[in-house]
TrEMBL record:
The keyword Oxidoreductase applies. Keywords: Oxidoreductase. PROSITE patterns: ALDEHYDE_DEHYDR_CYS, ALDEHYDE_DEHYDR_GLU. This is Acyl-CoA reductase-like NAD-dependent aldehyde dehydrogenase. Residues 27-471 form the Aldehyde dehydrogenase domain. The lineage of its organism: Bacteria, Bacillati, Actinomycetota, Actinomycetes, Micrococcales. It comes from Microbacterium natoriense. One of its GO terms (molecular function) is oxidoreductase activity, acting on the aldehyde or oxo group of donors, NAD or NADP as acceptor.
């Protein structure tokens, strides 16, 4: 990355970070060097931000769809113009490398999703149109949206939340994760160069601030991406004000490789389905069930890829895997792999930290010959360790795959398209991919079942989720 991008990043950080001697220090995920100071806003400051957003909302909705589209496209242009600087901040704060499906990829997705949100039309629906009655269902802004984001894809998921919300005429108060506030606040600052005042407000604080955002009486809609445990608390917090909710919660996505599948043909896609963002992705593949007939071939192919993928500091242009973002997540991955070893599972490659790279690096790990009841299979590891479970009975594989209380995504892998499509219908998840895992499209709705949350994002359904409906009913043609 050029020196000019680093300099531009420093300018953005100076714009949004807390004054010297205040705020919370944010470390570089790879080196642990302090890169900036995040503001620590109070509940009172949150209340003031929500009041400003509420006051700005009627004029923003009243500006009309065409004006909002124009401004969202301008915001996307602003993100593109600052993409290298934002990618630099993101790479350091979150840990993901610049290249591969990582920081630059995430910035490209931000502007692409924002442009798609601007382009989607949500038309009113004629319900009855006869001589006696004309009734239409129309969609209006919900009001003020509270957007609470995660630390794994902090910029992209924030755009998933705020893009449709702004498009429909809502104002937004966005709270980033305490682990990755700087990159999000920097992106919001860039967007606010073109948006009207108080339409989009960033707030940076602790869990008390997040809880207040979820329970505030003037917040009409909450969008949250994060753990199932936190999602349950948000549901409880929002009960008092009956805020509408979109919750994208934890996942423990299963993949099933069907009998006779060509291992060489799917190995790269299998690997990246599990290891994108160093495994720190809600809809990454967390468990892989492989039939006896191809088990050894799949395990060997995955092991070879895992052993060869470059890992290290994200600012090194050659790396495509980075560290775990935080110590708590590093400890979870370490614990689950150690438990698998203690149970007699076979570590094909990895299975240990990489201290020569940095404190939070964990080698890409493939674990074979592991039982379905192992903690590494039953718990979401959210890191660079993939358990590969052998099966001989296809029905049992589906029973195992569906036997957890979450259902965000899943995948089936086969050289037979008809067999794959039939198998996909047996998976209990919000999305099922065939011969791939985790790919998303801004026009294709996405959401979970079971304890993976509820509500849909993306496309027309995503716009509906941040709107309220109104039925307008009047005389028909005879009247």
């Amino acid at each position: 990355m050029s020196d000019s991008a680093a300099s531009a990043a420093a300018v953005l950080l100076d714009r949004i970070q807390a004054p010297e001697g205040s705020g919370r220090e944010i470390p570089d995920a790879a080196t642990r060097e302090i890169i900036g100071r995040a503001p620590v806003d109070s509940v009172a400051e949150l209340d003031e931000a929500i009041a400003r957003a509420k006051a700005a909302q009627p004029a923003w909705e009243g500006s009309g769809h065409e004006k909002r589209i124009e401004l969202l496209l301008a915001a996307a242009d602003a993100i593109d113009a600052n993409a290298e600087a934002l990618a630099y901040i993101l790479s350091r704060e979150q840990g993901k490398p610049l290249n591969g499906p990582n920081a630059r990829f995430e910035l490209g997705a931000c502007s692409a999703w924002l442009r798609t949100s601007a382009a989607i039309a949500l038309e009113s629906q004629v319900l009855v149109d006869d001589e006696n009655l004309h009734a239409e269902l129309v969609y209006k802004a919900a009001g003020v949206v509270g957007a609470i984001g995660p630390w794994n894809w902090p910029l992209m998921i924030t755009i998933w939340q705020i893009g449709p919300s702004l498009r429909m005429g809502n104002t937004v108060v966005a709270k980033p994760s305490e682990y990755t506030p700087l990159s999000v606040l920097a992106m919001l600052s860039v967007m606010n160069e073109v948006l009207p005042p108080d339409v989009l407000i960033g707030i940076s604080g602790d869990r008390e601030v997040g809880a207040r955002l979820a329970s505030h009486p003037d917040v009409d809609k909450i969008m949250f991406t994060g753990s199932t445990a936190t999602g349950r608390r948000i549901i409880e917090s929002s009960a008092g004000n009956l805020a509408r909710l979109t919750l994208e919660l934890g996942g423990n996505d299963a993949g099933i490789v069907l009998p006779g599948t060509d291992a060489a043909a799917i190995a790269q896609d299998l690997f990246w389905g599990a290891f994108i963002n160093t495994g720190q992705t809600c809809a990454a593949m967390k468990r892989l069930y492989v039939h006896d007939s191809v088990y050894d071939d799949v395990v060997n192919a995955l092991g070879e890829i895992a052993a060869s993928v470059p890992m290290g500091n994200g600012l090194d242009e050659d790396n495509v895997l980075g560290p775990l973002q935080n110590k708590a997540q590093f400890d979870i991955v370490s614990r689950l792999v150690e438990d698998a070893k203690a149970r007699g599972a076979r570590v094909v490659t990895g299975g240990e930290s990489a201290p020569e790279l940095g404190e939070l690096f964990y080698r890409p790990t493939i674990v074979a010959d592991i039982s379905n009841d192992a903690d590494l299979v039953q718990e979401e590891q959210f890191g660079p360790a993939l358990p590969v479970i052998r099966y001989s009975d296809v029905d049992e594989a589906f029973k195992w795959a569906n036997g957890v209380d979450v259902g965000l995504g899943a995948s089936v892998w086969s050289s037979d398209p008809d067999a794959a499509r039939e198998a996909a219908t047996r998976m209990q998840s919000g999305t099922v991919w065939i011969n791939s895992h985790g790919g998303l499209h801004p026009m294709v709705p996405f959401g979970g079942v079971k304890s993976s949350g509820y509500g849909l994002e993306f496309g027309v359904e995503g716009l509906k989720s941040v709107a309220v409906t109104q039925v307008v009913s009047g005389p028909g043609r005879k009247g």
